[in-house]
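Table S5 (text form). Sequence records supplied for joint modeling of the two-component complex.
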Amino acid sequence: MKHAIALSGVTKRFGAVEAVRDVSFALSPGAVALVGHNGAGKTTMMKMMLGLIRPTQGTVSVLGENPAAGQFQARRRLGYLPENVSFNAALTGRETLAFYARLKGEPVRQSLDLLDKVGLGAAASRRVGTYSKGMRQRLGLAQALIGQPAVLLLDEPTTGLDPALRLSFYEIVRELAAGGATVLLSSHALSELEERAERVIIMDRGRMVADGSLDELRRIARLPVRLRMRTADGQPAAAGLGPGRPAGDGAFEYEVQPERKMETLGSLLCGGCPPADLDVIPPSLDELYAHFLRERQSAA
Amino acid sequence: MTTIAIMAGKEIQEGLRNRWVLATTLLMAGLALALTFLGSAPTGSVGVRALDVVIVSLSSLTIFLLPLIALLISHDAIVGEMERGTMLLLLSYPVARWQVVLGKFFGHLAILAFATLLGYGAAAVALLATGAAIDAASWIAFAAMIASSVALGAVFIALGYLVSALAGNRGTAAGVCIGIWLALVLIYDMALLGLLVVDQGRVISGAALDTLLLLNPTDVYRLVNLAGFANVSAFSGMAGLAGGAALGPTTLVAALALWTVLPLGLASLSFSRREL
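The corresponding structure-token record, covering 576 residues in total, follows.
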């Protein structure tokens, strides 16, 4: 088995709506971000990986199994966090997690430690019905982590989490990915995923429009790099950079084509009047995302 | 097997937690005791009646009540969990869909069996406490009544699942289940009776009547209890029917089993095909 998850030529139609159109990719261990607007097909793809819905065309394989054919043993090594996770309100957090651990055939006691890991230790014996949205999300995360899964499918995992828990969440994801797990994250919060995903897949209306590491996407997109600079005299910098845009606090911002970045930096720093402060800002995932969507629309 | 047991265990745990078990048991016990002590009030005397008469009253109660309770807890089992979103997570676990259906079935059946045994058992205990003399044959009939009541519950739980697996939303499932209850518990017998009166035995033979009775699980239940035991049928006014019917206990039990297995199998099948 080479890839944890492989999709080839997958199309999913709901009546007249094509939710996913001819998508192919294969995922190896590491953290992968699935990016796209609402209705781009992210949740639909995850459901196909789980065998909850069957592809209209193409094949999906997860840990060497075909989920559409009803094979489910691979799900023992898979964790899933749905977008709007919900639990039976009558049971406590501990009972809920114990139930899911038993279903996976994992030791219950060990799995209950996950409640502490997501910060629910104190609320473990309260009914899930009394939990806030964020606490339910944490319980959802805890159940997805039961039994050190080899594949994690996380649909909008950080909605409702406070900033501190967001950080510890990404720390958990990093640990799992470093341990050889394949983690597929979907999110709207692109800036969050930026330095955390080794690979980004951008979806638009069911089609895959880009796939690669952030650096690869930047190379393909050829978006300008921004230089934010403050000179000693508070005046716009020397010629060759254009007029510049005031960026507040006496700083100016310039856009430079990526291939001219080092050349420009060299002449700035080694020139007669070096800047007092200089930031180099590569295009963010937000900008890349917007770029790829624009490109698709102009092509269509 | 373990998966089914885990599912059933959770169902029972939830039933205990949200007071389903308590409410059902109290309702059954309350009605059973009321029937035992006040059942003969219209005849002018209030007191405890012999167990055979209690069996007749309780099985008439069961025919109305148990299907209703069974449909109430089962109509929501699949479509409700889908609507609340808990099914999505459950099916991401290493569980086959037929295991979900069977696990829920055994859990719900356990709740129903517990309530029936305790509720109706209370009536028998109350009868004993007043010092009534009860012979062995009556005890056997009473045990058969409880067992067949649970079997009738199983039939309607299975029917409820089938509706739940097919229905698009909870409201539809509830509506269809009320329809099933009305049709099988009330309308079917009235229509059958009307048909027999109009027919006057010209077209409908004994065999045809047997078939018609087997097509309704509540009639099968009625035959098991009201006509199956000689000392009970004397009170129930079913002795005539029992004498004419060629349906032995094996056929009746097989009919109830089929009425459970068939809807349950269809429910699993349609749930397996469903996308969510």
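Note: Residues 105 and 130 of chain A are 28 Å apart (CA to CA).
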